[in-house]
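User: Some background: our group keeps a shared notebook of sequences we're curious about, and every so often someone picks one and asks for a predicted structure to add to the entry. Today it's my turn. The entry only has the sequence so far, pasted here. Could you supply the structure so I can complete it?
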Amino acid sequence: MPNTALRQTSLVFAAAMSACFSMAGTFAQGVPDYAAIVAAPDRSDADRVTDNRRDPVKLLAFTGVRTGMRVLDMGAGAGYSTELMARAVGPSGAVYGQNPADQGARGKAAFEARTQTPAGKVIVALSRPFDDPLPVDVTSLDLITFFFFYHDTVYMQVDRAAMNRKLYAALKPGASLIIADHSAKPGEGVSVGKTLHRVEEGVVRREVEAAGFKLTAEGDFFRHPDDTRDFTTQPPTKPADEFVLRFDKPR
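Assistant: Of course. Here's the predicted structure to add to the notebook entry:
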């Protein structure tokens, strides 16, 4: 083979190999077995009771959480969802669990206890305001989850516009913010956030999109059309209509 042809063949082969390595990097984050995560024998009995109303396998799948991701869990509470995220990202990932500084002692103790377990080793507790949830050195996150707590921010001293801008800035381009919450009646806006622990879905959409996010998917697995939406969800006494929304940061 002439030298010129040989060089051309070598360049084509090198380009092909480069493309393969690039694709391998793109798909390096594996898809966990969500059902196996939920079925893990070392999960607590209390969390298994919560599973009955949270349907965590479907929720995890909707988030698209992957091995090795860096995740922020907003309004982490006692850490039920935070631990599920930690199990999904595995030892190569990290999960930041945000709670306000005035979190109750019981919830704080429960959250701290999770960080001491094998499954919780990748959890980092953040005691910070909702509208300033992250230290300045925590950036380029792969995913943010905000489960059943957005409605609480409407009656707390939270600048929600600033909060949503901070969440937008913290994500990588193309990454997602997943919000799930209890649905209020159309027209109620944020007026029943404290009394019924609900928020109108349209308000959440408008506020989050105002920060630059794009709504890209909706989950219907928590929907209960028969919900009269006139009773409190805290504590939960019967199924409530709940929305699940995926917002992406444009690339």
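Suggested note for the entry: Residues 184 and 200 are 5 Å apart (CA to CA). The longest strand covers residues 171-182.
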